[in-house]
């Protein structure tokens, strides 16, 4: 394996580990904060220098609901980061940033269009 490929693999493994750990920590937070119950952790993107990690969430109410509840989510950022540092052994713990994941909304619209075409007999 070449070094760039190995580096990409390790980066993807780190993102996967972050996603799994943050999702389990977030499930514990939901038990204490029922306001965040509609949120789902969908993916994590680690910056190339591994200093920050963008955590993507999806909620049934869409972007508007996410923005309303984001303030509550930000309050839990220090405890998420602390739990992450205890779970993942490394030199540094990345800064966490929260974002709305619109990919599931796009996927749902595409599925609806395909279903509509099937109903009309075009597919």
Low-confidence stretches: none
User: Please, how many helices?
Assistant: 4
Quickly count the domains. 1
CATH architecture heading: 2-Layer Sandwich
The CATH topology: GMP Synthetase, Chain A, domain 3
The overall pLDDT average reads 89
CATH superfamily: K homology (KH) domain
What is the CATH class name?
Alpha Beta
- Name the shape in a single word: flat
Radius of gyration: 18 Å
Describe this protein with a few key phrases.
18% strand, alpha+beta, GMP Synthetase, Chain A, domain 3, 4 helices
How does this model look, in words?
The chain is an alpha+beta fold and 123 residues long. The chain has a single domain (3-119), classed as GMP Synthetase, Chain A, domain 3. Helix content is 59%, strand content 18%. It contains four helices and three strands, in the order αββααβα. A three-stranded mixed β-sheet has the order 1-2-3. Helix 1 (3-32) crosses helix 3.
């Amino acid at each position: 394996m070449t070094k760039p490929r190995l580096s990409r693999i390790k980066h993807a493994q780190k993102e996967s580990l972050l996603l799994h750990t943050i999702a389990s920590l977030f499930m514990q937070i939901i038990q204490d904060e029922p306001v965040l119950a509609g949120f789902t952790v969908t993916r994590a993107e680690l910056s190339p220098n591994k200093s920050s990690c963008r955590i993507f969430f999806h909620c049934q109410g869409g972007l508007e609901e996410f923005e309303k509840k984001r303030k509550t989510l930000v309050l839990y950022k220090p405890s998420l980061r602390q739990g992450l540092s205890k779970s993942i052994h490394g030199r540094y713990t990345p800064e966490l940033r929260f974002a709305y994941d619109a990919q599931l909304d796009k996927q749902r619209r595409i599925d609806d269009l395909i279903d509509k075409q099937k109903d009309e007999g075009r597919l």
